């Protein structure tokens, strides 16, 4: 077994910025779509989680051969998936791909009013509830949608969304610049509602500045 710092290839006294850069590099190197294997990808995730939690000194990361990839669940469990909770947030969503098709602009103040009148497919536009404890990505998946994602650890921009209205809590972000966050870009895999109502545009990973922050497009599960 290796220490979390050994898995990421950094010194035990490395600062946070160095650890984040190493994490992003190792995520890309070990991603299955980049020729890596699921077990090593999981080791990198576990190592970073231990460092982030301040548990690096007491944690040993199992060797890849000791990890049962069939048993690895990269999706957080939903404690109440069958029914909406009382404090669920109401989310109105729109696929970024629709904007080009319709000739709309993302900063159009009437964007969602136009979408509601355009008879769009439910995969492209609609409303859903985000239960307490769910991330935005988890809520979409629980309702049967396949929104883009890759690492689920805040190390890529595949799951990026543009928050148009409302507030979210995004406890972890290792790729988005302060400017992107100021412009409303969020990571749906990390973000949970902080207001009763939200409006967002998903599938925005192709926006300028985000393309180079993406991992391979195929989803990792």
Q: What is CATH's topology name of the largest domain?
A: Ubiquitin-like (UB roll)
Number of strands: 7
Overall mean confidence score, pLDDT: 84
Count the domains. Answer: 2
Largest sheet: 5 strands, mixed
Low-confidence stretches: 71-84
- Proportion of beta-strand residues: 5-15%
CATH architecture grouping of the largest domain: Roll
Describe this structure in words.
This protein is an alpha+beta fold and about 220 residues long. The protein folds into 2 domains: about 5-70, Helix Hairpins; about 90-215, Beta-grasp domain (Ubiquitin-like (UB roll), Roll), CATH 3.10.20. The protein contains 7 helices and 7 strands, in the order H-H-H-E-H-H-E-H-E-E-H-E-E-E. The strands form 2 sheets. The chain has a 5-stranded mixed beta sheet with strand order 2-1-7-3-5. The chain is elongated.
Q: What attributes does this structure have?
A:
elongated; alpha+beta; Ubiquitin-like (UB roll); Helix Hairpins; two-stranded antiparallel sheet; five-stranded mixed beta sheet
Gist of the model:
With 221 residues, the protein is α+β, with helices and mostly antiparallel strands. It has helices spanning 4-8, 16-30, 38-52, 96-102, 111-116, 136-142, 178-182; strands at 89-95, 125-130, 160-165, 168-169, 185-187, 192-193, 197-202.
